[in-house]
């Protein structure tokens, strides 16, 4: 049993932890998924430019947005080094998923490790507010995420990070700055990795538009659909959960089709407990009798707005990156 190898609750004290031998990374399946998503995304981007009526562009955009949810799930796997056994293949397939998002893979890896290490602390508390806190800022940020405005911040932030000189980065993103926990994993040569990955993204989109004669506006509509579909569900796995770095997440109940699209992303509590386990096995980490809240009900609960905080903030216990040791 997995829980006997590394009991829950001790994970943060472990120096390194490795992929469980009975749960190997599904290398071939993940590779097929990445290649299929690339083929599907290129086809939909092309189709989105080909169709003329606005409603047809939106319909293609909706299909594109669901395909990109699976792409994000694979990008997420790569950020935990769970996409491929070989670190080199994991990196390059992660870069491929990042290009379609679009987000430099190194940015995803750093920001996502920051999310895991600081989960449910004050910097990752979007759903709750302290007495006397500015409710307006909290409310605008919360409904901004739900309405789909989170996604544009990612590519825009990555561009600003890529072009900003060191003095600016140190002023806003150094280790002890409020947002420093997100980008702190990117140091020295890592900054050049972000710049090269950013360049690859720009080259990809310009080449694609030139080769397939795509319409920029139609492409933006497709990404607009993805922006809403992705952003609105970004906090559903954590909203109103316990303020605990590891346990502050939900295992939700969803339809089989959405489980496939999200690559078991609704099992977020199991993922936070064991980020070294591939998406493929997440349901196995729970007993079949576990009671899970419904995904839709949990999603709709968020629209009632942020709530007063009643728990103390958890203390960050480990600065270690939560990557599977290979
Ligand atoms: Zn994760």
TrEMBL record:
<protein>
    <submittedName>
        <fullName>Fatty acid desaturase</fullName>
    </submittedName>
</protein>
<keyword id="KW-1133">Transmembrane helix</keyword>
<keyword id="KW-0472">Membrane</keyword>
<feature type="transmembrane region" description="Helical">
    <location>
        <begin position="142"/>
        <end position="168"/>
    </location>
</feature>
<dbReference type="Pfam" id="PF00487">
    <property type="entry name" value="FA_desaturase"/>
</dbReference>
<dbReference type="GO" id="GO:0006629">
    <property type="term" value="P:lipid metabolic process"/>
</dbReference>
<feature type="transmembrane region" description="Helical">
    <location>
        <begin position="54"/>
        <end position="75"/>
    </location>
</feature>
<feature type="transmembrane region" description="Helical">
    <location>
        <begin position="91"/>
        <end position="108"/>
    </location>
</feature>
<feature type="domain" description="Fatty acid desaturase">
    <location>
        <begin position="54"/>
        <end position="303"/>
    </location>
</feature>
<dbReference type="InterPro" id="IPR005804">
    <property type="entry name" value="FA_desaturase_dom"/>
</dbReference>
<keyword id="KW-0812">Transmembrane</keyword>
<feature type="transmembrane region" description="Helical">
    <location>
        <begin position="29"/>
        <end position="48"/>
    </location>
</feature>
<feature type="transmembrane region" description="Helical">
    <location>
        <begin position="189"/>
        <end position="210"/>
    </location>
</feature>
């Amino acid at each position: 049993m997995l829980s006997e190898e590394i009991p829950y609750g001790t994970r943060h004290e472990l120096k390194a932890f490795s992929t469980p031998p009975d749960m190997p990374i599904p290398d071939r399946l993940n590779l097929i998924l990445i290649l299929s998503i690339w083929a599907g995304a290129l086809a939909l981007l092309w189709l989105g430019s080909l169709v003329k009526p606005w409603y047809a562009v939106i319909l293609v955009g909706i299909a594109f947005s669901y395909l990109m949810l699976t792409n994000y799930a694979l990008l997420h796997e790569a950020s935990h080094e769970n996409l491929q056994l070989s670190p080199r293949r994991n990196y390059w397939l992660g870069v491929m998923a990042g290009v379609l998002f679009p987000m430099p893979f190194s940015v995803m890896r750093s920001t996502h490790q920051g999310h895991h290490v600081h989960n449910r602390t004050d910097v990752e508390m979007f759903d709750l507010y302290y007495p006397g806190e500015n409710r307006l800022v909290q409310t605008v940020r919360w409904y901004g995420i739900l309405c789909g405005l989170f996604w544009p911040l990612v590519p825009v932030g990555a561009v600003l990070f890529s072009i900003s000189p060191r003095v600016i980065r140190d002023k806003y993103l150094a280790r002890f700055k409020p947002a420093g926990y997100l980008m702190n994993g990117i140091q020295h040569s890592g900054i050049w990795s972000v710049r090269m990955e950013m360049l690859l993204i720009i080259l990809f989109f310009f080449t694609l538009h030139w080769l397939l004669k795509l319409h920029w506006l139609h492409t933006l509509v497709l990404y607009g659909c993805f922006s809403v579909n992705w952003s609105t569900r970004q906090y559903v796995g954590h909203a109103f959960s316990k303020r605990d770095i590891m346990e502050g997440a939900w295992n939700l109940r969803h339809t089989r089709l959405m489980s496939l699209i999200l690559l078991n992303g609704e099992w977020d509590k199991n993922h936070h407990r064991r980020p070294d386990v591939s998406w493929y096995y997440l349901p196995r980490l729970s007993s079949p009798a576990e009671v899970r809240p419904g995904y839709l009900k949990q999603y709709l609960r968020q629209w009632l707005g942020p709530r007063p905080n009643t728990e103390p903030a958890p203390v960050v216990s480990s600065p270690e990156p939560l990557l599977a040791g290979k």
